[in-house]
C-alpha cells in the first residue's frame, strides 16, 4: 500500500458540548477525504450538531473534500445543526466561490465569528447583539 504523499492532520476540539471544531491541515483530496469523513462521522455519532471547519492550513482541496463538506452540511441541517468554514486559504476559497459552496456553507474569518453565527447572532463576535427568540 503506497504511503500518502500529502498526509492530512485533523485536530478536534470542543468549544461547546454540541460544537466540534475540526482544524484541518494538509491536502483535502481524494487520498485524504475518507479520513476527514471519519472524523466528521465520529463527531456526529457523539451528538455534535454544529461543525466548525478550520481550513486555514489546507493549501488544496478537490471535489472529494467539497463533497464531504456538503454531505455533513446536509446531515447537520436535518438535526438541526450547522456547518461553518473558517478562514480558508485563498486557493480553497477560490474553489468554494467558483463552485457556489461558499453561498451554501457560511465562511467566517474566525472561530468567534462562526460561533456567533451558531448562536444566531448577526453581528461580529465582539458586537453586543441581543438574541431574539421567535
Automatic annotation (TrEMBL):
It comes from the Bacteria. This is Anti-sigma factor antagonist. Signal peptide: none annotated. One of its GO terms (molecular function) is anti-sigma factor antagonist activity. InterPro entries: Anti-sigma_ant, STAS_dom, STAS_dom_sf. Residues 17-118 form the STAS domain. It comes from Streptomyces griseoviridis. Belongs to the anti-sigma-factor antagonist family.
